[in-house]
């Protein structure tokens, strides 16, 4: 390739996407989609104390909206603010959040009001930033750096970034040799359905018996669970797990003999007794519907597809045990990178639940015979603002995680870009994890093969290659389903 052509292609590639694009797009997805997903799943309050004469009373959060970064001056004047002013004056670059709140009395809306609930820190150069869409000359006039990549927050005048983290892909089947005594192989599935995260472990013992562990249920016979899900025809179980493989069919026969349960009710009763419950059937159904493979559904209607999936994974587990093959979990198809959206969703959801609990308490305390308290008096704004700022300023996250945010390295432009494109593994650095530290062939073109720190974090801290891009979140699942249907995939 000629030098001029090479330089033109390189300039085009670097100019086509921002170097901090994954931070910006992930934050925008969280604001556009993530916030309203949280509202849809959590935004309903049912007070115990109701107004007089009302049988059914609910407080419903309809939607959440965000404004532009602004500041309230000492003389109460509200005006827009740019990042440079926030840095100089040690301010937080954030925007107001408004909730649309309705009171529903016996199905009828009696109050609808917009309520201020706090302020959300804004990523610089995102579409919610006041610099969005400005040309280089306009940025210079506003005393901003036209070459600044953005992708970071400004908290109390300090630039903070959320470090992109690397983790195993959720809802994926990872099969490996089992280190527990008496077991040969295991299949692990880190089930993730928004707020619900439930690790599942399917195991095959030395005597070829199959077990599954999830939630509070430990080592439930897989055959028992399949029957509890409504598939009681043993010929169907043999056919769907065995798939005409004589060795696998023999293993399934062995499990059917060892765990001889005839009906769905007997299977549910057996699982309920494992939970030490008086109401065995109801408890078993509750655990199966809410915690077993939640990404496939969380109601009774999803039991059939859960049974199909369980039989599919059982087939893979038995086949892997017979062939002695493991899934390479360090292959990058089995990894996912989490940026702003994942981390902010976890934090905001936790804080928002507490705000709703406080709103419920304030409503019940303020209700009178002849009136209900105004929405703006039951929602507090200090908690959300303070906790978001604190988490971003310190890096201390929900779940005891630390180091989620870091102070942006501004020693030089290359060091700033390097920091913005850093990727940290969630594996602890004080353990060997030799295979996880190795440079894997599937990292080619995705990560820099050279840049990694010396010492305990070697291989666990990586940097995205300059021309690599992270795929955007929010895939249109209906389009994907349509394409799969066209390729001949049949619905279960």
Question: How would you describe what is shown here?
Answer:
With 492 residues, the protein is of the alpha+beta class. Helix content is 38%, strand content 22%. The chain contains 16 helices and 18 strands. The protein has helices at 3-16, 21-42, 83-88, 136-141, 222-228, 234-242, 246-258, 264-274, 280-291, 303-323, 340-366, 375-378, 382-394, 413-420, 434-437, 477-486, and strands spanning 44-45, 57-66, 70-72, 78-80, 94-105, 108-121, 153-155, 158-162, 164-168, 174-177, 183-193, 196-205, 210-214, 217-221, 335-338, 405-407, 422-425, 461-463. The protein has a 5-stranded antiparallel beta sheet. The model has no long low-confidence stretch (mean pLDDT 89).
Descriptive terms for the model:
single chain, 492 residues, alpha+beta, Rna Polymerase Beta Subunit, Chain: C,domain 2, Dna-directed Rna Polymerase Ii 140kd Polypeptide, Chain: B, domain 3, five-stranded antiparallel sheet, four-stranded antiparallel sheet, 16 helices, 22% strand, globular
Architecture blueprint of SSEs:
Blueprint: H1 3-16, H2 21-42, E1 44-45, E2 57-66, E3 70-72, E4 78-80, H3 83-88, E5 94-105, E6 108-121, H4 136-141, E7 153-155, E8 158-162, E9 164-168, E10 174-177, E11 183-193, E12 196-205, E13 210-214, E14 217-221, H5 222-228, H6 234-242, H7 246-258, H8 264-274, H9 280-291, H10 303-323, E15 335-338, H11 340-366, H12 375-378, H13 382-394, E16 405-407, H14 413-420, E17 422-425, H15 434-437, E18 461-463, H16 477-486
Parallel strand pairs: 9-17
Antiparallel strand pairs: 1-2, 2-5, 3-4, 5-6, 7-8, 8-16, 9-15, 10-11, 11-12, 12-13, 13-14, 17-18
């Amino acid at each position: 390739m000629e030098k001029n052509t090479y330089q033109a292609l390189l300039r085009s590639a670097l100019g086509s996407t921002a170097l901090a694009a994954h931070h910006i797009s992930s934050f925008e997805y969280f604001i556009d989609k993530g916030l309203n997903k949280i509202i849809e799943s959590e935004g309903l309050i049912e007070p115990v104390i109701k107004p007089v004469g009302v049988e059914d009373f609910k407080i419903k959060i309809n939607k959440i909206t965000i404004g532009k970064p602004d500041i309230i001056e000492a003389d109460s004047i509200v005006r827009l603010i740019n990042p440079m002013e926030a840095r100089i004056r040690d301010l937080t670059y954030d925007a107001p959040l408004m909730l649309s709140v309705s009171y529903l009395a016996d199905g009828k809306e009696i109050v609808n009001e917009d309520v201020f609930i706090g302020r959300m820190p804004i990523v610089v150069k995102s579409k919610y930033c006041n610099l969005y869409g400005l040309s280089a000359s306009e940025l210079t006039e506003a005393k901003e750096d036209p070459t600044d990549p953005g992708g970071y927050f400004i908290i109390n005048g300090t630039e903070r970034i959320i470090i992109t983290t690397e983790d195993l892909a959720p809802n994926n089947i990872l099969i490996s040799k089992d280190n527990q005594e008496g077991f040969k192989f295991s299949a692990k599935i880190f089930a993730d359905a928004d707020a619900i995260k439930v690790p599942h472990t399917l195991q095959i013992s030395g005597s070829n018996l199959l077990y599954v562990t999830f939630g509070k249920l430990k080592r439930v016979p897989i055959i028992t669970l399949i029957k509890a899900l409504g598939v009681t025809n043993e010929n169907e179980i043999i056919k769907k797990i065995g798939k005409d493989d004589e060795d696998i069919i023999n293993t399934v026969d062995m499990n059917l003999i060892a765990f001889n349960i005839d009906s769905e009710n007997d299977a549910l009763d057996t699982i309920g007794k494992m939970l030490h419950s008086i109401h065995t059937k109801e408890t078993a159904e509750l655990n199966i519907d809410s915690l077993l493979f939640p990404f496939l559904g969380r109601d009774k209607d999803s039991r059939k597809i859960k049974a199909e999936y369980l039989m599919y994974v059982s087939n893979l587990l038995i086949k892997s045990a017979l062939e002695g093959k493991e899934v390479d979990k360090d292959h990058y198809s089995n990894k996912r990178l989490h940026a702003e959206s994942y981390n902010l969703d976890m934090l905001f959801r936790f804080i928002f639940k507490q705000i709703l609990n406080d709103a419920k308490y304030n409503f019940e305390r303020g209700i009178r015979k002849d009136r209900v308290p105004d929405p703006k008096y039951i929602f507090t704004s200090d908690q959300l603002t303070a906790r978001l700022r604190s988490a971003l300023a310190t890096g201390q996250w929900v779940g005891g995680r630390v180091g989620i945010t870091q102070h942006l390295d501004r020693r030089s432009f290359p060091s700033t870009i390097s920091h913005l494109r850093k990727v940290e593994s969630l594996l602890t650095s004080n353990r060997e994890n030799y295979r996880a530290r190795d440079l894997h062939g599937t990292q080619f073109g995705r990560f820099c093969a050279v840049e990694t720190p010396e010492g305990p974090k070697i291989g666990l801290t990586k940097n995205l290659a300059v021309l690599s891009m992270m795929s955007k979140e929010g895939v249109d699942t209906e389009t994907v389903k349509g394409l799969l249907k066209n390729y001949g995939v049949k619905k279960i």
